[in-house]
Amino acid sequence: MVGELSNTPANQKQQSSLSYTVEQLVAVNPYNPDILPDIENYVNEQVSSQTYSLNANLCLLRLYQVEQERMSTQIVARILIKALMAMPAPDFSLCLFLIPERVQMEEQFKTLIVLSHYLETARFSQFWDEAAKNRHLLEVIPGFEQAIQEYAIHVLSLTYQKVPRAILAEVINIEGPSLDKFIDHHVANSGWTVEKNQNKGSHLIVLPPTEFNHPQFKKNTEDGIPLERIARMFPILE
Length: 238
Prior knowledge:
Blueprint: H1 12-16, H2 18-28, H3 36-49, H4 54-66, H5 73-85, H6 91-96, H7 101-104, H8 107-120, H9 124-133, H10 135-138, H11 144-159, E1 162-164, H12 165-172, H13 176-189, E2 193-197, E3 202-206, H14 227-237
Antiparallel strand pairs: 1-3, 2-3
Helix pairs in contact: 2-3, 3-4, 3-5, 5-8, 5-11, 8-9
């Protein structure tokens, strides 16, 4: 096996540079089955250190296609959960494409596919309900809830300028004092403000303006050519 690691003092330096070593192995010889155990270890390292490498994970899934008898469904599930955490990037679909259909039919993978669909369609209430039924599958991945909450906020910011507190609570699955703390954090760090709705006695969360929720902020395409430059070109084209 290439680059096998242990906990001996002689290998402590090598362990500390595990991510670099695996990325290098993937870049140099991604189809070498000897590196399969190293990449599996790297997936577990990504989980424990809350890091992420799509390239390494895709490489492992490709190796599993050739070495199907060596496939670890536990590792595959972890790859897919990490891919969910990367949304709105299309990583989940990229990974799923490399997983055999017979494996996708296993219950844990059917669940992850359903969760992905809920996220892609912004059905966050259904997502959190389904996630609650499958805590055993998701809780082993540190940072999962926080990553999905960040994605939910991203989706809200694409459409809304102001969000009722109750809607925010439903979308990110937080209530009570924990929600207050969450809002206070984003007020201090993300440019949120809180506005009281005088008529309904509720609070509105005012999200920072972007080119998506404030069309007037939409910038001109960077590749656009100013009109005066076009005018100067016409004599050349004649």
